[in-house]
Amino acid sequence: MEESLIICEKQGEGVSVITLNRPKVRNALNSELRQQMAELFIQLNEDPETKAIVLTGGDKVFAAGADINDFLTAKTVDVYLRRSERYWRAITDCQKPIVAAVNGYALGGGCELAMHADIIVAGKSAKFGQPEIKIGLMPGAGGTQRLFRAIGKHKAMKMILTGDMIDADEADQMGLVSEVVADDSTLTRAIEIATQLASYSPIALTQIKEVSMLGPDMPLDSALALERKAFQILFDTHDQKEGAKAFLEKRPAEYKGH
After folding, report:
1. What is the pLDDT of residues 197-218, one digit of tens each?
2. Which 3 state secondary structure label does DSSP give 9?
3. Rounded distance, CA 135 to CA 5, Å?
């Protein structure tokens, strides 16, 4: 793969910025791009210098869905054998906090990709949608499931069944995004949040993310037990003692991730 479909840059202390790089096709998520993105998330998950990740498509568009050209001749066995779920799994399994910076279209696979993030910063121009129904398909990378969990049945069903887009303000009201900012501030704000997260204890961030992701699919009592155990485990870490000591001494903490 000679063309770099993904750009990764370090920003400040502990932040890596991933930028989708297929601007001519609005960052359509073809197999090559998804594979490169998965490999990069695996690398960053193992990179001790990366404490938080920002995911963006650039100033104009996040990702306008899958590459429709792939759908013209693909048959069931072709799609099955691609095993594209492994590419998405690499993002789901990433233990580092992920902040998405979304300007312009986040449609189909692009909307599903944004929902893989832990925090979504949307520019005023952002448009979210699952328009697969308009070409005789349905979401296939979590659109029917993550939307339900994010915004509830009736809002999700309207988006999925009609294929209609919603703007950034409506997405904010529904709870699909974390905050809305001016377009020229989207990436800056996402990096600002990621930088804040990168200053915290990596092991505490990992525990928060793990418990928060597992809990909603468990009975409440079980989820609360999981939370308590994670909370208790942190008391045996260097970072917890350092954090408490730094707070009392009114100085920045020096976290080590253990």
Report:
1. 999 999 999 999 999 999 999 9
2. strand
3. 26
What's the CATH fold of domain 6-198? Answer: 2-enoyl-CoA Hydratase; Chain A, domain 1 (3.90.226)
Q: What is the mean pLDDT of residues 53-80?
A: 82
Is residue 211 within 8 Å of residue 227, measured between CB atoms?
A: yes
The upper half-sphere exposure of residue 133, i.e. CA atoms within 13 Å in the direction of its Cβ, equals: 13
Catalytic residues: 66, 109, 112, 132
What φ, ψ does residue 16 adopt, rounded to 5°? -115, 130
148-177 average pLDDT score: 96
Take residue 192 and report the two structure tokens written for it. 């600002």
Read off the tokens for 72. 């013209």
What tokens appear for 152 in the block?
Answer: 């509830």
CATH architecture of 202-248: Orthogonal Bundle (1.10)
Residue 2, pLDDT score: 46
- The pTM for the full model equals 0.93
If we measure between CA atoms, which residue out of 252, 122, 128, 129 comes closest to residue 199? 252
In eight-state DSSP terms, residue 60 is S
